[in-house]
Amino acid sequence: MNVLLVDDEPLELEQLEYLIHPLFPFWTLYKASDSCQATAISQKVKIHLAFLDINLPGKSGLELGEELRQHNQDIEIIIVTAYQNFHYAKQSIRLGVVDYMTKPVIQSELNDILSKYRNKMPQSKYSHVIHDALTIIHEKYAEKLALADLAAEVHINPTYLSRRFHDEVGVSFSEYLMQYRIQISKKYLLSHPDWSISTVSEKSGFNSQHYFCTIFRKSTSQTPKEYREKEK
Question: What are the residue boundaries of the HTH araC/xylS-type domain, all occurrences included (predicted)?
Fold first, then answer.
């Protein structure tokens, strides 16, 4: 799914990306700091979901939302703003916006919204089996989780699950699980600076610190320690 994040504050863009990516590592996130950049992106790729800050330079987020919807009636729009303003809320309703988030964005609220939009959009809707499989991965990534175990939990044959997973998600079960664990480890490295690399490895679902460091470096071109130092 293609998701557009629009905010003129770089830190806000990074925060949204930081919150979304670990949950849905194979969604494609596009970032823009104003309406011109956002429009240019939307003309090149079909955007399914857009997070728009109201207070943008040039066109407001609401004006941008109207423009995006004129070119793509299927786009879903979430307004994000630091202002609790009834006038903005009324304009949002007229635009067809059903979610209106106030900064700072809360992780639990964002999770609920993303889950709802993922399930309501035909372009991104997984089958019931794959949806259940992904939910289990997101809940049990820190445990020892094999394809056979996952297949047993969703009550289908492992071979069938493997093929279905790759067809719908676009990558294999093992690749998705590994990348999801890497994204979780990135979050832990930054949110728990007191944790050792060994602890981060274990909490993220890796049973070997050496293997974790090898995979992390292959994925990011940095060691976990280098990533923590660079991003903090």
Answer: 131-230
Is there a single domain that holds both residue 97 and residue 144? Answer: no
Same domain, 197 and 231: yes
Of 39, 34, 41, 24, the C-alpha closest to 55 is 34
| Tens digits of residue pLDDT in 21-59 | 777 776 778 999 999 999 999 998 888 899 999 888 888
Q: Assign 3-class secondary structure to the chain.
A: CEEEEECCCHHHHHHHHHHHCCCCCCCEEEEECCHHHHHHHHHHCCCCEEEEECCCCCCCHHHHHHHHHHHCCCCEEEEEECCCCHHHHHHHHHHCCCEEEECCCCHHHHHHHHHHHHHHCCCCCCCHHHHHHHHHHHHHCCCCCCHHHHHHHHCCCHHHHHHHHHHHHCCCHHHHHHHHHHHHHHHHHHHCCCCCHHHHHHHCCCCCHHHHHHHHHHHHCCCHHHHHHHHC
Note if the pTM is more than 0.70.
no
What the block records as the tokens of 171 is 């990558």
Domain extent, residue 75, equals 2-120
- The per-residue pLDDT for 95 is 63
CA distance 126 to 133: 10
**Burial (CB count <10 Å: 0-12, 13-18, 19+), residue 205:** buried
